[in-house]
Design brief:
CATH topology of chain A: Rossmann fold
Strand content of chain B: 5-15%
Oligomer: heterodimer
Number of domains of chain A: 1
Mean pLDDT of chain A: 93
Order of helices and strands of chain B: EHEHHEHHEHHEHH
Low-confidence stretches of chain A: none
Number of strands of chain B: 5
Strand content of chain A: 5-15%
Largest sheet of chain B: 5 strands, parallel
Helix content of chain B: 40-55%
Number of strands of chain A: 5
Distance between the termini of chain B: 63 Å
Number of helices of chain B: 9
Order of helices and strands of chain A: EHEHHEHHEHHEH
CATH superfamily of chain A: P-loop containing nucleotide triphosphate hydrolases
Distance between the termini of chain A: 24 Å
Strand order of the largest sheet of chain A: 2-3-1-4-5
CATH architecture of chain A: 3-Layer(aba) Sandwich
CATH class of chain A: Alpha Beta
Shape of chain B: globular
Strand order of the largest sheet of chain B: 2-3-1-4-5
C-alpha cells in the first residue's frame, strides 16, 4: 500500500503503490496570485534540492489546444466544457503528474479538481455527478487555498488582465456587463470553495497580505511535507 | 441537470448499437429513408462527430496518446456537445433523431478497456434516454468477414491494440470485440435494448425495425419540409 489514494475507483491500469513524490495543489480564484506564488515556491524548492514539476489547466498535450480553441467560439455548452476540462485534467494526471510522482518529484499544480467541480456545479451540474466523474483523481498531500474576497479580486483584475469573458462567467448571463457578472460569478465560486474548504480540508491562506508574507505562510505549510536529507 | 430517463420531449430518439460490421448503419440509413417518405422530419447524428472535439480525438488516436481514461472522457465530451447541440434541440422541435451509436457504445468499449462499470454509467447520466435502442447482434467471426478491406481496415483502437491483448491485429480485434459483445449482452436487460439478429437478411431486419418503430410513432409530428417544383412555370420559363 502506497501513500497515495484515489478519491474513488481511480484510474484503470495505474498502480499507485510506487508513487513517491509529493502532490501540492494551489487553488484560488482568478487573479488571486496563484501563478506568482507557484513561481516563488518552485524557486525555493529547487534551491533546496527538490525536483519540481509545475502544471495547470489547459496545458495537456492531448486536449489543451482543442479546449482553448473551443472557448474562442460561441457554441461551447456548459456540460461539454466541464468534460473537456476533465479530459485535459486526466491527460495531465496520467502523463505528467503520476510519472513525476513516480520519479519522486514535487508536483505543483495550479488548480486541481476543486476548481473544475466548482465551475461545473455553478453551471447547473448535479454535485453528485461531478464528484463521481472526478473519482479517478489522486488525493493530494495538501491543498493550499489562496482566499480573497470578491472586492479584492475585482481590484486586482481591473489593474492586471482586465475582465475576461469566462472569468466573469459571461456564459451564465449573471449581469448587464462584465463587472456585474464578474462579481456575481466570483461570489458564487467563493461560496462553493468555502463549502469545499471543510469537506476537503483546504489550508486557507489569506491572500490580502503582502506577496512576501503569503509566500512565507505557504512555505511553512509545505515544510513538514518535504524530505530532509 | 438532466438525468437519464427524466426528459419528456415531443420528438423521438431511435438509436442503433452493435460492433463494426454488424450492419447497424445500413439499417439506420434505410430507416431514415422510410421515415422521410412517411413525412416525418428526421435528424441524423453519429458517434464521434462533434466539431469542437473531433480534432482532439483524431489526433489522440493517430498518435496513440489515449489511455482508457482519456479515451472514455474525450468520447463523453464529444457526446456532451452532440447532446447539447444536436440531440436535445431537434427533440424539442419534435423531430425524429436517429443516432448511429449511443452511450452503450461507451459502456461496452470503456468497460472492455478496464474502466469501472458504475463510473462510466454515472459519466453519461446526462444522456437522453432513447425511445428505442436497437442492438444488432452478430458474432465476431461474422463481423470480420463483413469488414470491407480486411485487416487493413481495422483501426488500432477498434482492435483494442492499446490493451496489448495480442500483437496480431486480427487476434486482438477478436478478443477485444468479444469482450465488447459480452458487455452489450449484459446491457440488453439493464437498458432494455431491442435485439435484432444481424445474421438475418437486410430486408428482414428492416421489416422488423419498421414494425417496432411504427408503434413508437403514435402522436409524433409529421413535419417534413416538402419542396414543390412547379413544372408548368419551368416549362414556360424555358420557352424562347
Amino acid at each position: 500500500m502506497g501513500r497515495f489514494e484515489f478519491y474513488g475507483q481511480g484510474l484503470p491500469a495505474v498502480d499507485t503503490h510506487d508513487l513517491k513524490g509529493t502532490l501540492v495543489v494551489v487553488e484560488g480564484a482568478d487573479g488571486v496570485g496563484r501563478s506568482t506564488h507557484i513561481g516563488l515556491l518552485k524557486e525555493w524548492l529547487e534551491s533546496r534540492g527538490h525536483a519540481v514539476l509545475d502544471t495547470g489547466m489547459t496545458r495537456s498535450a492531448l486536449a489543451g489546444k482543442g479546449l482553448k480553441a473551443a472557448k474562442e467560439g460561441h457554441t461551447l455548452g456548459a456540460l461539454t466544457m466541464s468534460l473537456f476540462y476533465a479530459t485535459d485534467f486526466a491527460d495531465r494526471l496520467e502523463n505528467e503528474m503520476i510519472p513525476a510522482l513516480r520519479a519522486g518529484f514535487i508536483v505543483l499544480t495550479d488548480r486541481y479538481i476543486y476548481s473544475l467541480m466548482a465551475r461545473a456545479t455553478i453551471r447547473g451540474a448535479d454535485p453528485q455527478w461531478v464528484k463521481g466523474v472526478y473519482e479517478f483523481a489522486l488525493k493530494p498531500d495538501i491543498v493550499v487555498y489562496l482566499r480573497a474576497t470578491v472586492d479584492e479580486l475585482t481590484t486586482r483584475v481591473v489593474q492586471t488582465s482586465g475582465f475576461n469573458y469566462w472569468e466573469s462567467g459571461m456564459d451564465l448571463r449573471l449581469g448587464d456587463d462584465m463587472f456585474d457578472s464578474f462579481t456575481a460569478y466570483q461570489g458564487r465560486l467563493l461560496n462553493v470553495f468555502d463549502t469545499m474548504t471543510r469537506e476537503y480540508e483546504f489550508h486557507v491562506v489569506d491572500s490580502s497580505a503582502s506577496i512576501q508574507n503569503v509566500s512565507e505562510q505557504i512555505k511553512s505549510l509545505l515544510e513538514p511535507l518535504l524530505i530532509t536529507v | 441537470m438532466r438525468a437519464y430517463g427524466k426528459d419528456r420531449f415531443p420528438g423521438r430518439l431511435f438509436i442503433v448499437e452493435g460492433i463494426d460490421g454488424s450492419g447497424k448503419s445500413t439499417q439506420l440509413a434505410l430507416l431514415q429513408k422510410w421515415l422521410e417518405s412517411e413525412g416525418y422530419g428526421t435528424f441524423f447524428s453519429e458517434w464521434n462527430s462533434s466539431a469542437l472535439v473531433r480534432d482532439v480525438t483524431r489526433r489522440g488516436k493517430k498518435k496513440h496518446m489515449l489511455t482508457p481514461m482519456t479515451f472514455s472522457l474525450i468520447h463523453a465530451t464529444d457526446f456532451a456537445d452532440r447532446t447539447e447541440q444536436h440531440i436535445i434541440p431537434p427533440l424539442k422541435a419534435g423531430a425524429l433523431v436517429l443516432a448511429d451509436r449511443y452511450v452503450y457504445t461507451a459502456f461496452a468499449r470503456d468497460v472492455a478497456r478496464g474502466v469501472d462499470r458504475a463510473w462510466v454509467r454515472n459519466l453519461y447520466r446526462f444522456a437522453v434516454k432513447p425511445t428505442i435502442a436497437f442492438y444488432f447482434r452478430i458474432s465476431v467471426d461474422e463481423a470480420m468477414k463483413r469488414i470491407v478491406g480486411g485487416r487493413d481496415a481495422i483501426s488500432y483502437y477498434e482492435a483494442g491494440m492499446d490493451r496489448q491483448l495480442s500483437g496480431d491485429v486480427e487476434e486482438s480485434f477478436r478478443l477485444f470485440q468479444g469482450a465488447i459483445i459480452d458487455e452489450y449482452d449484459r446491457m440488453v436487460n439493464e437498458f432494455g435494448l431491442v435485439v435484432i439478429d444481424a445474421n438475418c437478411s437486410i430486408e428482414a431486419q428492416q421489416v422488423q425495425m419498421r414494425q417496432i418503430v411504427t408503434k413508437a410513432l403514435t402522436g409524433a409530428r409529421k413535419n417534413r419540409i416538402r419542396r414543390w417544383v412547379d413544372l408548368n412555370s419551368m416549362v414556360r420559363a424555358s420557352r424562347p
